[in-house]
Amino acid sequence: MDNALLLFLLFLPLGAAIIIALIPTKDDRDAQGLARFFSWIMVALSLLLVHDFSSSSGQLQFVTVKNWVSHPCNINFHIGVDGLSMSLVLLTTIITLMAVYASYSIKSRVKMYYANVMLLTFSLLGVFMSQDLLQFFVMYEFELVPMYFLIAIWGGPRRGYAAMKFLLYTFFGGVLMLGALLYTWTQLYAMDPALATFNMTTLAASSNALPLGAQVVACLGFFLAFIIKLPSVPFHTWLPDAHVEAPTPISMILAGLLLKMGGYGLIRICMGFFPAFFAEYAPWVIALGAINIIWGAIACLVQKDMKRIIAFSSVSHMGFILLGIGSLSNAAVNGAIFQMLSHGFISALLFFLVGTVYERCHTRQLPEIGGGLAYEMPVLFYFWMFATMANLGLPALSGFVGEVAVFYGAFTSPMAHSQVHGAWTQGWIIASALAVVLTAGYMLWLLKRLFYGPLMDKWKNHLYDATLTEKFVGTCLAALTLAFGIYPYWLNSMYQNIGDRITNQVITRTQISQTTPEANPHL
């Protein structure tokens, strides 16, 4: 029964997109009502699956397999979830529901808009559920189509430029992934035709048998594709432009869900399939994560556009994922997964709140707003205060849990105490920890420039406080951020088994490399 529920959940948004696009009505409220209805069903189905999900098992659950092509390569329709993917499926349905409710500002081509949102949700669920690597690639690339149109049609003045930049960057990453995928298959086929498969569970075991050189080449293609999506410096420049031009609900999905595709791929495929790559180059992954954290935070300090500040903040916070997975410790990797989920809620809340201010002031430029908005919008001010504290990592909120777990895991990791890389690793970790102060700086500065000080005359008696819909979206996202900050164990217990298993596989490979130098020609 649960297998059928997962299958139904996957195809429900696809069916919803078709229904919304074809309904014979010109009333925009019908399309909006259908989108909300289907979004609620998706949330309900994901909660049912979470209820029946066994957290004690590290194996795939709710599996459905149908053979598509048998020869010359075995290609299947294969879906299932473990703790890592189940938690991201839940995140996807919740953020989609919040984004649909936040779409009240969309006034043109409404049916087409909601149909594209549903198509985007279908591709996201497909990425997190897929257990066939070729199917994963198709779903990963399919999201480009609805996201391109969502930015290019309903975006801001430079929407065409931002949509094309997003398309080119992520399409280039897709080309790299396809090349790595085919290279992995041919290398396995050359080693033993019986090992050549696209089954991700089998690949997690068989790819480990590839020589170091082959693992490095294959993993590098996947790694570059995923850090473009994450995004990571120096491939991050598409993100601020996409966020600035995208409508508010699409920015919520972009930050809350699409970036998590990159983090999911890094853990599931790069770490899971190619442990030798991380055993060899983990210190460089840590350095890349630290650069992300520092660079993103510094970039926030010089921005005047609210959306660009939150966009660069996302770049900075994605650095914690790289720092965590590069540290090669169970605590750090599990902390990186928690950071992915936590950032999904917090970033969605922040972009939603940016949208509420823009709806009233019709500008995102802080000098034009001038501060003092708390006088006219006290409820929205409280939501802003909460989201700011969550983003800078205040204790008892989910942002604190993810960052602390990553830093604790990194400081106690084998990499930090390695005779070869210990000083290098510790230096980058300390620099990252100091950069957290910058996060507090730019977030509090943003809050001050928006809500404190005297109110400009042009805003007096022209602004209004949170509407009922805005209170609903803000309260839901804030409540989840608070709940997982106070009681993170429920979320952590869902994915801990799979996180530990993937990490231990890399740690084992690292220990083998250190004890047998002939196994690693670079040592």
User: Mean pLDDT across all residues, rounded?
Assistant: 92
Biggest pleated-sheet summary:
2 strands, antiparallel
- Summing up helix and strand content along with how strands pair, one would put the structural category as mainly alpha
Strand content: under 5%
Oligomer: single chain
Helical amount: over 70%
Fold and architecture overview:
With 523 residues, the protein is mainly alpha-helical. It folds into 2 domains: 1-252 and 267-273, no CATH class; 290-505, no CATH class. The chain is built from 20 helices and 2 strands. A two-stranded antiparallel sheet has the order 1-2. Helix 1 packs antiparallel against helix 2, helix 1 (2-22) runs antiparallel to helix 4 and helix 9 runs antiparallel to helix 11. The termini are far apart. Mean pLDDT is 92; it is low at 515-523.
Relevant terms:
two-stranded antiparallel ribbon, single chain, 74% helix, 20 helices, 3% strand, mainly alpha, 523 residues
How would you sum up this structure in a few lines?
The chain has helices at 2-22, 28-52, 83-101, 110-129, 133-142, 144-154, 159-191, 200-206, 212-229, 238-245, 248-273, 275-300, 306-327, 330-361, 366-369, 378-391, 398-411, 422-451, 468-486, 489-515; strands at 61-69, 75-81. The protein is mainly alpha-helical and 523 residues long.
Write the layout of secondary structure elements.
Elements: H1 2-22, H2 28-52, E1 61-69, E2 75-81, H3 83-101, H4 110-129, H5 133-142, H6 144-154, H7 159-191, H8 200-206, H9 212-229, H10 238-245, H11 248-273, H12 275-300, H13 306-327, H14 330-361, H15 366-369, H16 378-391, H17 398-411, H18 422-451, H19 468-486, H20 489-515
Antiparallel strand pairs: 1-2
